[in-house]
Specification:
By secondary structure, the chain is α/β, with parallel strands linked by helices. The protein has a single domain, classed as Rossmann fold, CATH 3.40.50. 31% of the residues lie in helices and 25% in strands. The protein has seven helices and eleven strands. It has a nine-stranded mixed sheet with strand order 5-4-6-7-3-8-9-10-11, with helices on both faces. It has a two-stranded antiparallel sheet with strand order 1-2. Strand 8 and strand 9 form a beta hairpin. The longest helix is centred in the middle third of the chain and has 17 residues. The structure holds adenosine-5'-triphosphate and magnesium ion.
Length: 248
């Protein structure tokens, strides 16, 4: 009888977000090669947080791409640097090819499988330009609006996520969701959320006339995580997640 050997594989590698409090909630960072969503209310910090994660990866020598669909690459960069004036080396990282910001303008509905295949192949082409290990996709909300119905939207997102998985890309995909969905990992318009390995939820909370931002990890496959809801602060030197256990 042949002896069966069980290969338990190497421990998972993680991509640090570069944000101490968030890394702490994620037990070290986002599992490499995983497909993740940052969902949340409008203005809750999805674009800035995902920008910073890509910027931090690039600073540590990991090539990253930010694909913007919501706005032009220039507008995204200009606003991110106006929010984070401390990120003085962002342009240098772009010149070195460590941080790529690319835009895609989508005007027409996705009517055929060919148009979806073309769209995804263009993303993969963009990612290969600097051999990116991390892709930030901002945001899925436009794609939903351009899909004929939720079934075709789900099919498209599934195909996109599978394509990223097949090339071992770690992705962070943003999407605006209404505040009512609470702690559920359910994403409006998607029939099936199991395609995403991780879901981070951001929200706005009005307190004493000011808006506070909150973050919580609501799903993380392959890893433990802390599910507490934690304040997220946008400062000139970047996002701070004030997790009690983390040293800032
Ligand atoms: N240039 C800036 N300077 C200072 N604060 C900013 C700047 N841009 C955005 N902010 C603050 O950061 C918060 C988060 O902005 P961000 O664009 O990341 O939100 P979002 O979740 O992507 O919103 P949307 O759903 O509208 O795309 C905003 O509510 C705003 O308070
Ligand atoms: Mg945004």
């Amino acid at each position: 009888m042949a002896k069966i050997t069980v290969d338990l594989g190497a421990p998972i590698k993680r991509l640090s977000t570069g944000i101490a409090g968030l890394d702490d909630m994620l037990y070290g960072g986002i599992p490499e090669g995983s497909q993740n969503m940052i969902i949340g209310d409008s203005g809750s910090g999805k674009t800035l947080l995902s920008f910073q994660i890509a910027y931090n990866a690039a600073r540590s020598g990991i090539p990253a791409t930010i694909l913007t669909i919501d706005q032009t690459a220039n507008d995204l960069l200009r606003n991110a640097l106006s929010a984070f004036p401390g990120f003085t080396d962002a342009k240098e990282l772009m010149d070195k090819g460590l941080l790529n910001i690319v835009e895609m303008e989508l005007l027409e509905e996705f009517k055929s499988r060919e148009s979806i295949t073309y769209f995804i192949s263009e993303i993969v082409k963009g990612v290969r330009m600097n051999d990116s290990k991390l892709l930030v996709f901002d945001s899925l909300s436009v794609l939903r609006a351009l899909s004929a119905d939720d079934r075709s939207f789900t099919r498209m997102v599934n195909y996109m996520v599978e394509s990223f998985h097949n090339i071992d890309l770690t992705s962070i995909i943003t999407m605006e969701v209404p505040p009512t969905s609470g702690d559920s990992a359910k994403i409006p318009g998607l029939y099936e959320e199991s395609m995403f390995d991780g879901v981070i939820r951001l929200s706005n909370m009005k307190r004493a006339g000011a808006t506070e931002h909150l973050t919580s990890v609501i799903k993380l496959r392959f890893s433990k995580y802390k599910s507490s809801t934690t304040p997220l602060e946008i400062t000139p030197n970047g996002v701070i997640v004030r997790n009690r256990q983390a040293s800032l």
